[in-house]
């Protein structure tokens, strides 16, 4: 049953001729959608409890508010929601019931939102096609990919809405397929319990400050799992708690606040229709507080809400169920009678059940075929290997089998078969290899961009030094690059703390706001989470943001959206969504505990899915920006905090040369020891090598340039084959990035076989770097530390020739 186009609500007390019939048809269609969604929730819970699904989390109790909301949404609008929004997606036609169940079954072939990678009710629209090109965002309702983290959608919502403002305010901005002059509204849904998260308040404040078109829709069912609102929210009401943000005049800052009951169909329709249209025309955000929602099936399949809700509350929820209230309203207004509604509900149940059956059959049929195939392989070898009978019985007894169970059985059968008859095991070996390839395709792809738009495929253009190339301060080199980039890329934006008027604290963006305007180069408040969120949302809508976090030490405030949202976006959508955001920051050594950050281990372990680039100077940094602006991959670029005043010769082809991603560079050739490092430590190592050279030690110095991806060319491995000794050097804590690099070279690439002595690491101390030069010298690797460590390595190889000089 298709949803009709929304028409304004008619006054039922007034005769409207054909309008009344259209209205009645629309109301009954909404009722049907609510019933289908509720039945889907009930069935989903049963599927989990009977073992067909792993986990169930549904949108029951929120149906009526969401069909009302759907009427106010137009194609081109965006959703940044959470896992209770199924009815909204059904009403918009952006999700089918079959797809809903396919995701419950983790069906990689029929779940269009995540290809079996996300749990149910985690939706995503196709923003990028199979060729890697942007789709037409104006021809669809756009759902940015959901995350499970409470309030994790908030920062992204700010960025999505800010994109509308940019498309509206920047006349020269190309917007074909992305925006209709910035008229798109962002629907940001959230549960009442999650409004206690700090990012909710940060995002709401940022939206009011920026004056962006965003509708914050709060589904308030009185609980955050078992914790009631009185322990969550001041005054027991999120709308009352936010009254200080109320806009006081049409030309003022702030937001509008609307309140309606989750069971009041007419009130909900009027609220959303008027409120969202107001957002669309005024660009002022609004809060829609939907009160008295219920949760008939409880929070999830993890347990019953009867464990923590008092009996009176359970009874109230049954009486105030939004669908029952909708039925009563329909009957009272003589739109349909009880019998007609009963028929609609029966149709809804039948439809939901048939969709479940179809989705299950689509999922289980190929699985059962795989089981039969494996049975035949085992049966054919039963005579030569009797222990296979146990595996065969196990295979036959599987209820609702999954592929991994069969692979585990096949592997154990293979273990028994190989010693008996290796030839007979060959077919089983081929089977397992095929399944391994299938798992890789289903679950191991699209962590990064593959094919078109991949950063690793950007053509390499070497820097050129023709004629009289000026020698500049590092920040001036970056400044020249950014000037070129803003002139070349009309969709390029830059923002962050002190980025606008000041031109960033180290002057790399100096003059950019004055030249290219405040709409493209602008300041942000002290709100790292939503700075990252802005970058994600802007990038998802086709813009090219450079979001600055002033120091890497403060990146921790923005780690949640980086690790949970940006890093996982391509993977969790199987490549149908991208956010090619550039996160710019600065780190390594300078002064004090919070201005000498090098937490690379934390970043490496948290940000798989984001390229991590660590330029040694600003010429290299400029080339990395040039590379990433030609790609569809997100990245983190960490500039050297103490490098902005170092003199560098600027290439004559500034803005066009690129630095290849995943390719280290040999800065100095040598034969005795390979030193692998990056960033600020490159200068430390270079100075140490000059000292070591006087001692007759030949060092090969390699700058890894990018930690992710790491040495796709095996250059470091080849160097180790030559020198047979290797030192990994950086400023992270022990066991941080040096351990990562060592594992990559020694274990993954096979470097262990070429070591004459054990691989070494030289890092900072485990504690933070104290303030002042003495503290820095002690806590971070210095020139003398490098000299003594390499001397120790050579002493181990040839004590007579290289006497130990270390006094520590």
List its traits:
808 residues; alpha/beta; Rossmann fold; 4 domains; 7-stranded mixed β-sheet; 6-stranded parallel β-sheet; 22 strands; 41% helix; 11% strand; globular; disordered N terminus
Short description:
With 808 residues, the protein is of the alpha/beta class. The protein contains 26 helices and 22 strands. β18, α22 (681-694) and β19 (699-703) form a beta-alpha-beta unit.
What does this structure look like?
The chain has four domains: 18-336, Thiamin diphosphate (ThDP)-binding fold, Pyr/PP domains (Rossmann fold, 3-Layer(aba) Sandwich); 366-443, no CATH class; 455-649, 3-Layer(aba) Sandwich (Rossmann fold); 666-797, Rossmann fold. The strands form five sheets. The protein has a seven-stranded mixed beta sheet, sandwiched between helices. With 808 residues, it is of the alpha/beta class. Helix 1 packs antiparallel against helix 10, helix 11 packs antiparallel against helix 12 (388-397) and helix 13 (403-420) runs antiparallel to helix 14. Helices cover 41% and strands 11% of the residues. It is globular, with a radius of gyration of 30 Å.
Query: Cα distance, first to last residue?
Result: 79 Å
Shape: globular
Tell me the helix content.
40-55%
Named CATH topology of the largest domain: Rossmann fold
CATH hierarchy: architecture of the largest domain: 3-Layer(aba) Sandwich
Approximately what portion of the residues adopt beta-strand conformation?
5-15%
**Helix count?**
26
**CATH homologous superfamily identity of the largest domain:** Thiamin diphosphate (ThDP)-binding fold, Pyr/PP domains
């Amino acid at each position: 049953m298709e949803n009709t186009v929304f028409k304004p609500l008619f006054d039922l007390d007034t005769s409207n001729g054909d309008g009344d019939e259209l209205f009645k048809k629309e109301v009954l269609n909404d009722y049907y959608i609510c019933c289908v969604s509720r039945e889907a929730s009930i069935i989903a819970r049963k599927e989990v409890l009977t073992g067909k699904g792993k986990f169930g989390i549904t949108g029951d109790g929120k149906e009526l508010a969401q069909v009302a909301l759907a009427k106010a949404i137009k194609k081109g609008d965006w959703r940044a929601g959470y896992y209770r929004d199924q009815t909204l997606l059904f009403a918009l036609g952006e999700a089918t019931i079959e797809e809903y169940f396919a995701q419950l079954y983790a069906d990689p072939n029929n779940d269009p939102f995540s290809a079996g990678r996300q749990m149910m009710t985690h939706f995503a629209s196709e923003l990028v096609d199979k060729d890697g090109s942007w789709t037409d965002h104006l021809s669809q309702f756009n759902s940015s990919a959901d995350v499970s983290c409470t309030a994790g959608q908030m920062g992204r919502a700010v960025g999505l809405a800010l994109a509308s403002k940019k498309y509206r305010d920047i006349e020269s901005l190309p917007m074909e397929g992305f925006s209709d002059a910035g008229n798109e509204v962002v629907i940001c849904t959230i549960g009442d319990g999650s409004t206690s998260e700090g990012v909710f308040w940060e995002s709401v404040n940022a939206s009011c400050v920026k004056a962006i078109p965003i509708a914050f829709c709060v589904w308030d069912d009185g609980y955050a799992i078992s914790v009631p609102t009185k322990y969550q929210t001041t005054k027991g009401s999120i709308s009352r708690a936010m009254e200080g943000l109320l806009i006081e005049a049409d030309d003022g800052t702030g937001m509008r606040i609307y309140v309606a009951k989750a069971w009041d169909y007419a009130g909900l329709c009027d609220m959303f229709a008027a409120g969202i249209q107001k957002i669309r025309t005024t660009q002022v955000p609004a809060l829609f507080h939907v009160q008295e929602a219920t949760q008939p099936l409880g929070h999830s399949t993890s347990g019953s809400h009867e464990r923590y809700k008092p009996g009176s509350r359970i009874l109230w929820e049954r009486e105030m169920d939004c669908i029952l209230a909708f039925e009563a309203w329909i009957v009272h207004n003589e739109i349909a009678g009880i019998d007609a509604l009963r028929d609609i509900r029966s149709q809804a149940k039948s439809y939901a059940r048939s969709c479940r059956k179809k989705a299950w059959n689509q999922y289980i049929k190929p699985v059962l075929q795989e089981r039969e195939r494996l049975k035949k392989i085992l049966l054919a070898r039963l005579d030569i290997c009797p222990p296979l009978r146990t595996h065969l019985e196990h295979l036959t007894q599987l209820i609702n089998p999954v592929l991994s169970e069969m692979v585990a059985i096949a592997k154990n059968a293979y273990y028994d078969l190989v010693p008996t008859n290796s030839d007979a095991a060959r077919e089983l070996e081929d089977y397992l290899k095929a399944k391994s390839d299938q798992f890789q395709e289903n679950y191991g792809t699209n962590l990064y961009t593959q094919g078109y738009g991949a950063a690793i495929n950007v053509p390499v253009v070497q820097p050129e030094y023709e004629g009289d190339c000026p020698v500049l301060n590092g920040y001036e080199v970056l400044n020249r690059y950014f000037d070129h980039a803003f002139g070349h890329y009309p969709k390029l934006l830059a923002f962050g703390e002190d980025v606008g008027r000041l031109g960033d604290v180290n002057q790399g963006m100096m003059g950019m706001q004055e030249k290219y305007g405040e709409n493209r180069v602008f300041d942000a408040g002290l709100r790292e989470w939503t700075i990252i969120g802005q970058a994600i949302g802007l990038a998802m809508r086709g813009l090219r943001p450079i979001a600055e976090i002033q120091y890497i030490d403060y990146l921790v405030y923005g780690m949640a959206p980086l690790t949970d949202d940006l890093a996982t976006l391509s993977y969790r959508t199987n490549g149908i969504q991208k956010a090619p955001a550039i996160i710019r920051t600065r780190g390594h050594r300078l002064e004090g505990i919070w201005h000498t950050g090098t937490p690379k281990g934390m970043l490496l372990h948290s940000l798989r899915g984001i390229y991590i680039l660590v330029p040694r100077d600003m010429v290299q940094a400029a080339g990395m920006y040039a590379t990433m602006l030609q790609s569809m991959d997100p990245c983190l670029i960490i500039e050297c905090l103490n490098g902005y005043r170092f003199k560098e010769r600027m290439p004559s082809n500034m803005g066009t040369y690129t630095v290849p991603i995943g390719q280290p560079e040999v800065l100095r050739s040598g034969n005795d020891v390979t030193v692998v490092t990056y960033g600020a430590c490159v200068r430390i190592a270079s100075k140490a090598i000059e000292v070591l050279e006087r001692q007759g030690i030949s060092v090969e110095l390699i700058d890894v340039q990018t930690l992710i991806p790491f040495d796709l060319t095996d250059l470091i491995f080849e160097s180790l084959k030559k020198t047979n000794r290797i030192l990994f050097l950086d400023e992270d804590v022990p066991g941080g990035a040096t351990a990562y690099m060592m594992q990559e070279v020694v274990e993954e690439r096979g470097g262990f076989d070429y070591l004459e002595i054990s691989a070494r690491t030289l890092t900072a101390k485990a504690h933070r770097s104290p303030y002042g030069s003495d503290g820095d010298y002690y806590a971070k690797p210095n020139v003398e530390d490098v000299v003594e460590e390499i001397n120790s390595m050579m002493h181990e190889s040839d004590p007579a020739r290289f006497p130990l000089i270390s006094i520590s």
